[in-house]
């Protein structure tokens, strides 16, 4: 039995695809090992969202070769797709597999292994070292599937791939291609399999899930039609027996309409945790980013969500130090963040990404200024998080318990509310992982957890 080890870099879509590849290798009779262990095969599912992600991908490729110089090292995914022929000269890589080719990963690896064995016996054979397609011209969704994942209570479900937005700082449309959606029946079948296997919560994920269904043939591709594809999928998933929670990945702010939010509220399993990626609260900066909405439109989306849901968690991503971001623009963005009152903000310093429009823009911001702006927003985030959590004092919440933890010498079961508040519940008889515990919260904040001192 040959062994294979995996390393996943980047987003939840990558993790889903790694889980699917693991299942394919296990079904083919391979032993799955940890990446740090000596293995016959190493598969690195790479990321290219930033130059730093590129460097990390290269580091993990070279680390695999150091662990076992005789192992077959396979570089897969976004970095491979974006780097093109540059990786051909890297002697530590034995096989290159681009996006939309991962479904063939087992046969590609076995062919490479077979050629190796023949070459060791004196036969001179060749194999396809690089399996990379032109991702920008395919309309096919890569049919990967999972029946179990690394987590024990929550499963990420990939519903689409690709992006048509072309934000000026982002390389992903070039690495993932155009929007390609997975068929409803395939998604529902996979969710039912996971629920039957004991999973209580699913998270719908993709590169740009708000575009789900945009590519379906013979459809009216207006905004209303796109809304109806995603909401119709969610409504059908709400009918899957045994599914307790549906959580959504990052959403385009413009998808939030009165109709969308109203129909979403009627799905009992939906988690009122909405990640609306913002990037900046200043219209001038948003225009340079090519983000397709204004701060006022974003504000309206948040207003609609708060109209239909009681105390929803609104989370976001923010970039500081984007090219030409003046002090006035930063202040406008900071004021908007304070106005929205986010439950959580992920703050990023702008990082130049080769191959994007923003990388060649004039007015690149000094790192010292980026650090100062980032520190200020991180401090704001801590304050806003505490304010959001305090709203739950004495309110009833449902915690999906996941694992046991020891905090300050005491035993707890930890998990998340529907609003994605990380809660620690004192361990007691009758409490088990992968069950939902409901009660009124008496809270104190302790580092990454909200400690439930009492649940009535």
Tell me what the structure shows.
- With about 450 residues, the protein is α/β, with parallel strands linked by helices.
- The protein is about 35% helix and about 25% strand.
- It contains twelve helices and 18 strands.
- Strands 2-1-3-4-5-6 form a six-stranded parallel sheet, sandwiched between helices. The protein has a five-stranded mixed β-barrel with strand order 14-15-16-18-17. The chain has a four-stranded mixed sheet with strand order 8-7-9-10.
- The protein is globular, with a radius of gyration of 23 Å.
- The N and C termini lie far apart (about 55 Å).
Quickly list its features.
456 residues, alpha/beta, six-stranded parallel β-sheet, five-stranded mixed barrel, 12 helices, 34% helix, globular
SSE topology sketch:
Layout: E1 3-8, H1 12-27, E2 31-33, E3 41-46, H2 51-67, E4 72-77, H3 78-83, E5 95-97, H4 105-120, E6 130-131, E7 154-161, H5 172-176, E8 180-181, H6 184-196, E9 201-206, H7 223-237, E10 245-248, H8 258-265, E11 273-275, H9 283-289, H10 295-308, E12 313-320, H11 327-340, E13 344-349, H12 367-390, E14 396-407, E15 410-417, E16 422-426, E17 436-446, E18 449-455
Parallel strand pairs: 1-2, 1-3, 3-4, 4-5, 5-6, 7-9, 9-10, 11-12, 12-13, 16-18
Antiparallel strand pairs: 7-8, 14-15, 14-17, 15-16, 17-18
